[in-house]
Amino acid sequence: MAKDTDNRVDEGEEKDLETPAESFQEEESARAPKKKSGRSITATVLLSLAIVLFLAGGVLGLLYYNSYRSLEEMKAAVDVEGFYPGITIDGQDVGGRSYEEVRAEILARQQAEADARVLTVAFEGQSFTLPAQSSYDTEQVLVDAYNYAKEGELKERYEKVSALRTQPLDFTTTVSVTVDKVDAFIQEIESAVNIPAQDATVGAFDAQSKTFTFTDEVAGRTMNSEKLRAYIDAAINTGDFSAPIALEVESVLPTVTKAQLEAQNTLLASFTTKTTSSTSRNTNIRLCSSAFNGYVLAPGETFSINTLTGPRTSAKGYKEAGSIQNGIMIQEPGGGVCQVSTTLFNAVVRAGLEIEERHGHSWPSDYVKIGMDAAIDYPAKDFKFKNTSDAPIYLVSTFEDRNLTVEVYGKPILEEGVTIDLRSTTDSTIKRGSDIMVFDESVAPGKNKTVRKGRDGKKSTTYIQYIKNGEVFEEKVLFTTTYPAIRAIINYGPEIVYEDPNPAPSEPDTPVVPPEEDNIWD
User: Are 171 and 87 in contact (CB under 8 A)?
Assistant: First the structure.
């Protein structure tokens, strides 16, 4: 061991004792190129490959890291609660807000808008309103906006979300506006606004003074319904309900003025008959005629004298006076009133009114021409006429100094300058038959008593004439009247009996009086 040590020391020492020349030669030898061995080349290649692999791994790692970071960024960008930034609805930014929050806000706004959609029509301080009905597609728009870029491939979604940063996307709700019951709305306004014009009217008629009083006419107004409907349609189509619609109205003038009535209401016709000196008969005439003194007959109304007076009885003050029954003159309450209906008939027919019912007597009256009488008998026979004008008719009757006058006032029915008169003719005579002989033991023997006078009958035609400037320009038959022939009724008493050896012939059969329907007040 030691030897070995000594030997190492010696060798070292020997090395340290080399000469400078020898050291120089060794250094020169070391600097001189040496021939590489195969092991050295392999190591170099391996080292180079290791370096390349290291570098490649670094690059791949960097790439993987960058890809990972990009993926995380995309996920972070698309995995957002609520609406994506850059999403707007009706121009309002909803990015980052929750679905329910945005929905509640939009619905509240739309409800306020809907509440404001009210049609308003204004007129003279009055306001008429009709709410509109609004229908939105809000729910679908909210779903579309909320789900934007929330479905599909990650990259595609990320690209859509990224694009919103520079190009925001607006989702717009639409509304459908309807207005129901427009017709009823317009009718409601018409009822409140329209005022019909009021024609002047005859306020009263004083039969005593024969004068009229009149009410004034009043102008009315009516709204222009067609224009209002056009304004309503325009508001619905444009959705503009902000301004009230100004209602347009037009003045409505009355068709009848006070001045017209003053000029129109006048005496249309008058007729007078002369009565007898019978006090009872004249009392009946006065009572019956006074029943329609001042009577007002409305347009289209029918006048009936029987309806007006009812039965003409003693309880109503009518006196017994001569009347004709079965062609026989008898005394009954109300006798003589046919002169009233006859006078009234002649007045109203000359006024141009329509005669609805008229009857002739059993024989012609002596206070009017043949065919111009009008008999009445309650309730069988009546006198009726109709007011065919478009204005009231007023009747006036006066009875003075045995003169009965009936006047008709009102608006003229005939053309200006035209008057009416009657003309009648006796067309034929109807011969009466033989007298009817009736035995009456109350009659003195050998005597006769005339119960009913015999009369020949007559047929008459009554014409209505239309006159202008004193000339008849039209004439037509008004009616025909048949006054029946009346056989005399004569009652006779027993024969005078003489003492004669020759017996007298037997008594003849008693004649039978045929029934007759004639039952007429005279």
Answer: yes
